[in-house]
Amino acid sequence: MADSGSRPNAFPLKPIMVIGATISIAAIAFVYTAGWITPHRLTPTKLVAALLPSKGPALGHRRNHAKGICFSGAFDANGAGSELSKAKVFERGQYPVVGRFNIAGPDPQVPDAMVPVRGLGIRIMDPDGQEWRSAMIDAPVFAAPTPRAFFEFLTASASKDPNAFKQYSSTHPEIFTFISWVKGHSRTESWTEDRFNSLDSFVFIDKAGAKSVVRWSFLPYTKPVAVSPEELVKREPDFLEEDIIERVVAAPQSWNLVITVANPGDPTSDPTRAWPADRRMVNVGTLTVRQIELEVDGPCRDINFDPSVLPAGMTTSDDPFPAARSAAYRVSHNARMEESSSYPHTQKEGK
Amino acid sequence: MTTQRTRFAAPQRFLHWFMAACIISMLLIGVGMISTIAPKYLTLLAIHKPLGVTILGLALIRLALRIYYGAPALPADLPIPMKLAAELSQYVFYALMIGMPLIGWGMLSAASHPVILFGSVHLPPILPLNANLYSLLRRTHYFLGFAFFALILMHVAALLFHKLVRKDGIFEAMAPSFISHQTDELIQRNQ
């Protein structure tokens, strides 16, 4: 008290320093938390940037799996899923679905034959307003074991340094499993003949609270017919979209939803590692696609098929990808929502 | 509205400090969660939504208490600009405490993204799916988050200024009881 108390007009140096220090520490804590002074942190913005082609993004479109088409339909649960998860969508009944068939890559104009990876996004809605969203691809395993490894793989693949990929693959030999699938798997002429896999694992919780670690797949009703890549290149650039429109107009198209349950000790955190083929599988119902709509005016266009959106009875597992994908999808979704004028609707909404 | 009391009522003081902890956590969670792809992103996001709704509820209660109890008068010798800043900042704080959760809720609604509080408990959408509306609300939520933290820094600086330099009792008006009592004793001893 003595100092400032005895000389009330003196400049209050000590209090001002206390104030300055307090505010500075608080501001630094905030900026640190925001990641502005930690350049090593892998932000979702960096991950999404690594997916972009050198010419930049296609404005208004998804940053990856940019080319796609919307559908609506339903999921008919047979009730068998209820022994694994208390989620409402597994109780016998019908639940509306909005989804999107797509192909990988950042270019919405790419000819379908050029892209070896195909995907399916779905949003299953229960009557209570809970949702199950999932984005799957037709590969049996993923390219990289962790989000950071995936980022390094993308960076190495885009690098002009000829040794970059060699360096990556020397520490990540699992990439060759993915590459050999990309080059060698038998292709089809239709999404309706493709199988789509969650790749990531999730945890299902039943009514008693018991947990199972699972992955899931949508298996096509339609028998796949292999078509050589040379043959596909001769097709129309949008042959997949033309095919699905034609098939769904003729008849609804269906997939079985099959849940695979891990045994203790299975690699649940690493989507590059398949589980043994003898694992328990539960057929929980049927996805039926009833209507196709072009993405530009379709119901999937502004939806983010964020794989972390799960109903009660499902959660993420020790697999780090759903969190990373959720963060990256958010950045992609935010960007394309900002750019929506570059990808305008062709019809007025509500028509 | 002012009263003859020199301190805020006990429920007001409790809500002030409890909400201060909630809001500072909320702002750090907000900037932290959008900066990472690590699994903690989903944990932080799962806290952000119910905590935001909690803050909204508490802010409405606090507003009611503020109207009911009023506030102690500012010191008569407080310079006019400081008086104005003190009055104005209260309006801005209430607007942010009530506005930020609503903007966040509206923003997710406009993206047709569910607002899950816990388990199967979730909020209904309050706006229709609309890309432009989503972008506007998201930008607003983002920038107001920074503005909110900046305002808190100014608020803390002002409080320390009142406590350490002016010693005018403004800090004591909102201080928790044990600190106020200590200060009272200190003042009495010095006198």
Plain-language structure description:
The complex is a heterodimer of chains A (351) and B (191). With 351 residues, chain A is α+β, with helices and mostly antiparallel strands. Chain A folds into 2 domains: 1-40; 42-342, Catalase HpII,  Chain A, domain 1 (Beta Barrel). In chain A, 28% of the residues lie in helices and 23% in strands. Chain A has 9 helices and 10 strands. In chain A, strands 1, 2, 3, 4, 5, 6, 7, 8, 9 and 10 form a 10-stranded antiparallel sheet that branches. In chain A, a hairpin with a 5-residue loop joins strand 3 and strand 4 (131-137). Chain A is globular, with a radius of gyration of 24 Å. Mean pLDDT of chain A is 95; it is low at 1-6. Chain B has 191 residues and is mainly alpha-helical. Chain B has one domain (2-184): Fumarate Reductase Cytochrome B subunit (Up-down Bundle), CATH 1.20.950. Chain B contains 6 helices and 4 strands, in the order βααβαββααα. Chain B has helices at residues 10-33, 40-69, 80-110, 131-166, 170-174, 177-190, and strands at 2-3, 71-72, 115-118, 121-123. In chain B, strand 3 and strand 4 form a beta hairpin. The longest helix of chain B has 36 residues, at 131-166. The model of chain B has no long low-confidence stretch (mean pLDDT 92). The interface between A and B is large, with 48 and 37 residues.
